[in-house]
Amino acid sequence: MSTGQHTGRAANDRFIVANAASLPTVGWGKVNRPLPADAFRALSEHLLAHLQATTSYELNLHAGGAAGARVRVVTTSAAHALFCRSLLQDATRFAASDQPITVLHAPECNADPALHGTRSGTFIVLDLLSRTVLIGGTAYAGELKKSVFSLLNFALPEAGILPMHAAVNVGAAGDSAVFFGLSGTGKTTLSADPERFLVGDDEHGWSAEGVFNLEGGCYAKTLGLRPQLEPEIWRAVHGRSALLENVVVSPTTGDVDWDDASVTENTRAAYPLEALDSVWSAPVVQAPKHVIFLTADAFGVLPPVAQLSASQALYYFLSGYTAKLAGTEAGLVRPEPTFSTCFGAPFMPRPAGTYARLLRRRLEESGAQVWLVNTGWVGGAYGEGQRMAIGETRRIVSAILSGELTHAPCRRYGRFGLEVPTQVPGVRSAVLDPRSCWADPARYDAQEAILAERFIENFRSYAADVSLDVLSAGPT
């Protein structure tokens, strides 16, 4: 499937309807932009008229597990109908919800900014009151699942459930692990571990009972896909139900060139969980022993692994630092350092403190250890250094989950004050000291100072709402 102009999320064209449900409860700002209620009504009528005049497909699905809701999808695209069937859940597995979610989707239907209050012809609009999503002017499939996820992120905290932009896997003994991270940081790759069972690769809830998947499939990045490095994903994308998005196919052989980024670096594959060999069958798994924050540091400053204190865990959760990778948003052509609250700001309608308080509660109840794992650049910033080798990152994660690093000797590192293990079996000792990997250590120091200042500046917006221990847990 080709998505045309939009090969990533149209972040600037996403709106939340301003009404009684949203005005007092949404964390308004650059991410959560309001759309007047009358503009929403006009846009709804416009989209409904288009759907009624066009052949469409209707699906009755589910999202959010036992705590979630029925999802009714109406779309003019058969490919997007397949996407939703793979990414959402089978409604027959869950009890019907009191208030379903409705998604109206027509990629070819454009808004009129003068009439509908949008920024352009593209629109992704969420109405929290009626639990309705309107999508038009973009064929990027990720908008569908992320919109449903956003509505659940608004609703679940009222039930004391922490919604997480995170992957989850579980060992044979039922020991779960949570991988937070934005697109491109390695959630799908690292959670698809042949030694463990996958719960899901992107969206989960964490309640007092445990952790559960909010969706029914995976939406994996495929650029550079190799069977040797990602065998589980390789087999899944070659399955009968897989939907490939924006990959380049040879017109003569019909083979996919997994290295061709001429359309976008954000090539994707959607497939149901059943396409994977090792999937955990129980609907809920026990609370995690380990929580991993994945970041792709484009500055080449952060170490590949660090053990976080309770205060640091909240600091880095609220900061949500990473590099947005090329293609994941419209117009993004190279990694761009960014801070995304809770590692998922574009999908979190409520104020950040709501999610941070729930995380604190869950960590205290479970006793989970939190780790920061950098899958980004070493030996220099983007354009000079190299991306952290996936094999070494896998070894780090394995050492975390096995308990090898829980009591390993650490040293306090640089301005960020992170506790970095002095050794990880199977990982080059040099990469555990990022400064030593730079040809010019003085340039590393300058980059470290710049990144530290970005953290400090970003965190000023949270200063009034966090305790002193969290405020002082960041870099100096």
Give a description of the structure:
The chain has 476 residues and is an alpha+beta fold. It has twelve helices and 26 strands. The chain has helices at residues 37-52, 78-87, 113-116, 142-155, 187-191, 231-237, 310-319, 352-366, 390-402, 434-437, 441-459, 468-471, and strands at residues 14-18, 33-36, 57-63, 69-75, 101-106, 123-127, 132-136, 162-170, 176-180, 197-200, 203-207, 210-213, 217-221, 243-245, 248-249, 256-257, 268-272, 290-295, 305-308, 321-324, 336-339, 369-374, 377-378, 386-387, 410-413, 418-421. The strands form seven sheets. Strands 8, 9, 10, 11, 12, 18, 19 and 22 form an eight-stranded mixed beta sheet that branches. Strand 25 (410-413) and strand 26 form a beta hairpin.
| Total strand segments | 26
Q: Pairing-aware structural class of the strands and helices?
A: alpha+beta
The radius of gyration over CA amounts to 22 Å
Shape: globular
* Uncertain residue ranges: none
Layout of helices and strands:
Elements: E1 14-18, E2 33-36, H1 37-52, E3 57-63, E4 69-75, H2 78-87, E5 101-106, H3 113-116, E6 123-127, E7 132-136, H4 142-155, E8 162-170, E9 176-180, H5 187-191, E10 197-200, E11 203-207, E12 210-213, E13 217-221, H6 231-237, E14 243-245, E15 248-249, E16 256-257, E17 268-272, E18 290-295, E19 305-308, H7 310-319, E20 321-324, E21 336-339, H8 352-366, E22 369-374, E23 377-378, E24 386-387, H9 390-402, E25 410-413, E26 418-421, H10 434-437, H11 441-459, H12 468-471
Parallel strand pairs: 1-2, 1-6, 4-5, 5-7, 9-18, 18-22
Antiparallel strand pairs: 3-4, 6-7, 8-9, 8-10, 8-11, 11-12, 13-17, 14-17, 15-16, 19-22, 20-21, 23-24, 25-26
Helix pairs in contact: 7-8
